[in-house]
């Protein structure tokens, strides 16, 4: 370019009157493509501007004929082409160096530069703002994670007998987390207060008696079940395995009446609240639960805590946020059990089975050797519950790293803080991971020029032991806006309960992103392999449905926000101390000697998911997955077509709605492919359409106060696709208990919910398909 400039200058016999400086200026919207041109005019000390000083003023201008002028223009064009080629080759060389950086084959900073000529004629380089590409960002996260930080956080809970919601230890832990968020220099840190009604154990212990020719105390445990009904009940004991619906069906098949009985079941498979609800439905007057069989004999004498509310949040403000102005409306959740419930130890359960002489346990029901299903002799169980209701203030602690382009769109990472016991696994692991993610990502933003497009919120919840109370109350408080702003919730609770197996619960929208991440994160057991090698290509078939005790559940089923919950456990050999007073750091380390390494792996998975969702132009939400889920549902419906036709109905309209959704998803994918990624307005509109997919599967025909979990895939109630399938199975079996009116309503609601989701996915009303 120097030679070209000199040639042109000599050709026109004059000095250039100005030069141009190029600088790449960082734009506030993150776009580096803008080139600013500043023209600086040279100040001439003598003569007219632009006129050569060595020419005499009276010299006549040189005569040029048309031929000379054409030659001059052609020469200028040639020289300009030569200059362009030189500049292009230089630019291509710089881009190849950048590409080598992206491939990992070169060691460079990937920093864009601009060059210009200084006053002395020397070429200079101006460093532009550093751009962090995804591979470098991913590696930076992994490098910055520090194992000692996990240990420091975990030791904060040592020596604490409990961190019960709303009590002193919980407030101290909340203050510690608030201080840590502040020390990490998050953009904003704040508290969210809720006034909730909880149930605590009374001054008198709850008691369980065996009544047989007198009264013999079985156990008076320190642990209790929150939201149990108070009072004393007596009934014959009946053992019902895990307390699932199929387990109760087995008892019915044996011809045993459960009316007026005290049902006994072991922990696991489903939540305690679901077990109690099933028992109440069968006419039981009380319920007892013991820890499932374990290889760890130390746990035989321990009694777990729990809650019996079939729901999440404060059961005395259903559908309302528990702010101080709510003042506890005169309603209560329909999920309260209304029967006394208590937990007992495995030792107490073994003593109870030893007194029973009825039918022996089925082979697959044996949790304790020698267990019996029923009792034939004159023996009953007496249960007394003395719990008390208390009003408490709980705190949710938040910190945020604000996005540089769309601060009003955010991913939320959350962990439960409270626990009835020390809570090393229940709350300590998740809290430690939350703090480490806040520290590392904030450091990347403050010190390494990472500028996330969207915001990242870190949340520490209280009231988790009572059924995700803190998280649910926050969702209820901001229900009108969160679904339009929060595009993913990442749950960090109970992330390490073992080391052999991987447990994944997630929205289908996040399957593709999770798979991509697992292919890039090393397996802590085998450094030469990644996590994807462990879970296998068919891992989606083993995704575990979220239970209501998981804080991610209300985000998905109540607010329609995609969620993911990821962690390690040992299938068939669960961590025995979860939810007991012995959930200590020592016991957790005894369960796995790779505790901190496993925590680091979970942190890396959660961090990559959060960063990828806030880094890319396009949200990494795979809405096509729901087309596959709907197709799978349609295949399950096919065997029931004759039964439905016999009612004078058809499944075709439901099939058409599924097809509409598939076409709408295809159309959106086309819109994304054909859009201008650099157009922020268009990109935001497309991302908003993707964000609404999960929300649009919340049934719009139900009241969130009466039926809070409205999601047709993951919710609870007769509106769900699962409930429709169950009714169709009973209809095919000619079960007289089937409510035909309910079946017709279910078909209509399912059809129009799916059709509505398809219409919303299309975007503009004039593009919708109005065939239905």
Describe this structure in a few short sentences:
The chain has 772 residues and is an alpha/beta fold.
Question: What topology emerges from the helices and strands here?
Answer:
Blueprint: H1 2-11, E1 18-24, E2 35-41, H2 66-103, E3 113-117, E4 123-127, H3 134-144, H4 147-154, H5 168-183, E5 188-200, E6 207-211, E7 215-219, E8 225-226, E9 231-235, E10 237-239, H6 245-253, E11 262-266, H7 272-281, E12 286-290, E13 306-307, E14 341-344, H8 346-355, E15 380-385, E16 388-401, E17 406-416, H9 424-447, E18 454-461, H10 469-477, H11 482-485, E19 486-491, E20 501-506, H12 511-518, E21 522-523, E22 526-530, H13 531-535, H14 552-557, E23 563-569, H15 585-591, H16 595-615, H17 624-637, H18 641-646, H19 652-673, H20 680-695, H21 721-732, H22 740-762
Parallel strand pairs: 8-13, 10-11, 11-12, 12-14, 17-18, 17-19, 19-23
Antiparallel strand pairs: 1-2, 3-4, 5-16, 6-7, 6-15, 9-15, 16-18, 20-23, 21-22
Helix pairs in contact: 1-2, 3-16, 4-9, 4-16, 9-16, 12-16, 17-19, 19-22, 20-22, 21-22
Transmembrane segments: 69-91
Domain Peptidase M28: 396-592
Protein name: Transferrin receptor protein 1
């Amino acid at each position: 370019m120097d030679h070209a400039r000199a040639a042109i200058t000599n050709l026109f016999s004059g000095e250039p009157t100005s030069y141009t400086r190029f600088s790449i200026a960082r734009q506030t919207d993150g776009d580096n493509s803008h080139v600013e041109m500043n023209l600086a005019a040279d100040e001439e000390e003598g003569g007219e501007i632009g006129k050569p000083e060595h020419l005499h003023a009276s010299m006549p201008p040189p005569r040029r004929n048309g031929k000379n002028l054409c030659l001059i223009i052609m020469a200028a064009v040639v020289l300009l082409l030569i200059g362009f080629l030189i500049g292009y080759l230089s630019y291509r060389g710089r881009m190849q160096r950048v590409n080598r950086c992206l491939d990992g084959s070169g060691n460079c900073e990937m920093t864009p530069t601009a060059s210009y000529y200084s006053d002395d004629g020397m070429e200079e380089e101006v460093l532009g703002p550093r751009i962090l590409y995804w591979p470098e960002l991913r590696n930076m996260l992994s490098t910055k994670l520090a194992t000692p930080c996990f240990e420091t956080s975990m030791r904060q809970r040592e020596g604490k007998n409990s961190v019960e919601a709303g009590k002193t230890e919980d407030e101290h832990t909340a203050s510690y987390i608030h201080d840590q968020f502040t020390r990490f220099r998050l953009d904003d840190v704040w508290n969210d207060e809720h006034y909730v009604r909880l149930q605590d154990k009374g001054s008198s212990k709850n008691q369980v008696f065996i009544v047989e020719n007198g009264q013999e105390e079985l156990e008076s445990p320190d642990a209790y079940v929150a939201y149990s009904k108070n009072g004393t009940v007596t009934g014959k004991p009946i053992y019902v395995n895990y307390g699932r619906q199929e387990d109760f069906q087995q008892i019915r098949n044996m011809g045993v009446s459960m009316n007026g009985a005290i049902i006994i079941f072991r922990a696991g498979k489903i939540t305690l609240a679901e077990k109690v609800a099933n028992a109440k439905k069968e006419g039981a007057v009380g319920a007892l639960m013991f820890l499932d069989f374990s290889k760890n004999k130390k746990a035989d004498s321990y009694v777990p805590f729990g809650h019996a509310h079939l729901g999440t949040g404060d059961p005395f403000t259903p559908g309302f946020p528990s702010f101080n102005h709510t003042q506890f409306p005169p309603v209560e959740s329909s999920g309260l059990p209304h029967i006394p419930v208590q937990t007992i130890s495995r030792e107490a359960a073994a003593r109870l089975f030893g007194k029973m002489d009825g039918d022996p346990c089925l082979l697959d029901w044996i949790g304790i050797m020698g267990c019996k299903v029923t009792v034939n002799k004159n023996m009953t169980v007496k249960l007394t519950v003395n719990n008390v209701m208390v009003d408490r203030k709980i705190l949710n602690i938040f910190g945020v790293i604000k996005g540089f382009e769309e601060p009003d769109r955010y991913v939320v990472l959350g962990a439960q803080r409270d626990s009835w016991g020390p809570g090393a696994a229940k709350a300590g692991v998740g809290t430690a991971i939350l703090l480490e993610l806040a520290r590392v990502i904030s450091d990347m933003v403050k010190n390494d020029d990472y500028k996330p497009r969207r915001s990242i919120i870190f949340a520490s919840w209280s009231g988790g032991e009572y059924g995700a109370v803190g998280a649910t109350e926050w969702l209820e408080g901001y229900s009108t806006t969160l679904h339009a702003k929060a595009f993913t919730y990442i749950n960090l609770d109970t992330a390490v309960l073992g080391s052999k197996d991987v447990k994944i619960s997630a929205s289908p929208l996040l399957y593709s992103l999770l798979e991509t991440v697992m292919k890039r994160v090393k397996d802590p057991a085998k450094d030469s392999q990644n996590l994807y090698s462990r879970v296998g290509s068919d891992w989606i078939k083993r995704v575990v449905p979220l239970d209501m005790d998981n804080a991610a559940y209300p985000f998905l089923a109540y607010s329609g926000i995609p969620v993911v919950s990821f962690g390690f456990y040992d299938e068939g050999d669960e961590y025995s101390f979860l939810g007991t007073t012995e959930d200590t750091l020592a016991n957790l380390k005894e369960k796995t000697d790779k505790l901190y390494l496993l925590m680091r792996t979970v942190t890396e998975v959660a961090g990559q998911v959060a960063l990828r969702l806030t880094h890319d132009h396009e949200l990494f939400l795979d809405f096509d997955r729901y087309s596959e889920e709907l197709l799978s549902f349609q295949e399950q419906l096919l065997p029931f077509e004759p039964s439905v036709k016999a009612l004078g109905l058809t499944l075709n309209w439901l099939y058409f709605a599924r097809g509409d959704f598939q076409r709408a998803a295809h159309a959106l994918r086309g819109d994304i492919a054909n859009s201008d990624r650099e157009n922020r307005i268009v990109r935001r509109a497309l991302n908003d359409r993707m964000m609404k997919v999960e929300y649009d599967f919340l049934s719009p025909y139900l009241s969130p106060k009466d039926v809070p979990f409205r999601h047709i895939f993951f919710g609870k109630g007769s509106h769900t696709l699962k409930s429709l399938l169950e009714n169709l199975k009973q209809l095919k079996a000619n079960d007289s208990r089937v409510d035909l009116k309910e079946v017709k309503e279910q078909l209509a609601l399912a059809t129009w919910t799916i059709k509505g989701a398809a219409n919303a996915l299309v975007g503009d009303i004039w593009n919708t398909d109005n065939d239905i």
